[in-house]
UniProtKB/TrEMBL annotation:
Superkingdom in the source lineage: Bacteria
InterPro entries membership: YkvI-like
Organism this protein belongs to: Cohnella xylanilytica
Protein keywords: Membrane, Transmembrane, Transmembrane helix
Transmembrane helix listed as a keyword: yes
Protein name: Membrane protein YkvI
Transmembrane segments: 42-63, 84-109, 115-132, 139-160, 180-206, 218-240, 260-285, 297-315, 321-338
């Protein structure tokens, strides 16, 4: 039972790391799946397979080779020299992703809580700085609480959608997007999210080091991500195309159910954004500490200030511009980890 509990912690951390600003708000699901209409369900299935397979492989590699950070993984995949350059690129990408997360928190405050965008940025930065002083155990604990509640409330929105007209539109929704763009989308989505998740999954795999626990956690986490993607896709498809006007489309849908559900769901969206931001900054500061002779507290402060400056561009423009670009940059990384023959993850024991 203790090993199952640890597997669930890993699964929830996997889900919480991927279900960040874009996913929880619905913008990411819209960008990569829902806008492609009836193809979205099959694309989500393809993404789920990639999450299970490569998520397990990444953590097992980290455990087997005792990797301290994602730079060790990149050196293993690309060689020492190229791996160092890839890690430099990942630092830049992670900074951009963290800026998107922080901007998503600001959008929640401005769009749903009648507070200013800047208030959302500053509040999130402050709480993030405090929690990061607690390390990996704090990240595991927060995700173990937030992710199950987020899954439950996502289920509430899906049930509400299934009782309304148009609940089956995800099976017939037309699109004018090209088939090439549609079938590249799950690979871009999985590549981007897995390459970002390595900042957390590599040190997590090394610290747990139990292959059965890691493999089981990857299966539970990958399938959970797929289920949440499909739930979001079904919910958003029933409101297309009008739902595209919102920065936080899932929050707009939650408002239809009732004020209490709306505010609780908005809080959960914020917490999902927050947990991903904390996890990514944790991995980023670990990597920066290997390069710079600066205390962890000052590195965390510096990263948060950079994200605050970049967050001034706004959540929607940052996500729609940066995420597809980062997905393309991550495809080579995903191909190499998929071809790596050091370990071949099996079904969970």
């Amino acid at each position: 039972m203790k090993r199952w509990g640890r597997s669930l912690q890993i699964a929830f951390t996997f889900i919480g790391t991927v279900v960040g600003a874009g996913f929880a708000t619905g913008r990411e699901v819209m960008q990569f799946f829902t806008r492609f209409g009836h193809w979205g369900g099959l694309m989500i299935a393809a993404s789920t397979i990639l999450f299970v397979w490569l998520g397990a492989k990444m953590m097992l590699l980290a455990a087997d080779l005792k990797m301290r950070s994602y730079e060790d993984l990149n050196k293993h995949l690309f060689g020492d020299r190229m791996g160092t350059w890839v890690s430099h690129l990942m630092l830049i990408v992670l900074l951009g992703v963290n800026a998107v997360m922080l901007a998503g928190a600001g959008s929640i405050f401005s769009e749903h809580l009648s507070l200013s965008y800047q208030t959302g940025l500053l509040f999130t930065m402050f709480v993030c700085f405090l929690l990061l002083r607690k390390g990996m155990n704090a990240i595991l604990t927060v995700n173990t609480i937030v992710v199950p509640v987020m899954i439950a409330f996502t289920a509430v929105l899906v049930v509400h959608t299934l009782q309304a007209p148009g609940s089956d539109r995800w099976l017939s929704l037309e699109t004018d997007q090209s088939p090439w763009a549609a079938w590249m989308s799950p690979f871009l989505y999985a590549a981007f999210n897995l390459s970002m998740a390595q900042a957390v999954l590599v040190p997590l795999g090394a610290s747990v080091a139990d292959p059965v626990v890691l493999r089981r956690g990857a299966w539970l986490g990958g399938l959970g991500i797929g289920a949440m993607l499909l739930a979001g896709h079904v919910t958003l498809s029933s409101r297309m195309p009008g739902v595209q006007q919102f920065d936080i489309p899932m929050g707009g849908i939650a408002r239809e159910v009732g004020p209490w559900v709306h505010y609780i769901y908005v809080f959960l969206i914020f917490m999902e954004i927050f947990t991903t931001l904390v996890a990514d900054i944790y991995g980023l500061t670990l990597q920066l500490q290997e390069r710079l002779n600066v205390s962890k507290a000052w590195l965390t402060f510096g990263v948060l200030m950079f994200c605050f400056a970049a967050g001034q561009f706004g959540f929607g423009p940052l996500l729609s511009t940066l995420y597809p670009l980062f997905g393309m940059l991550s495809l080579g990384w995903m191909l190499l980890i998929g071809r790596d023959r050091k370990l071949r993850p099996r079904s969970p024991s």
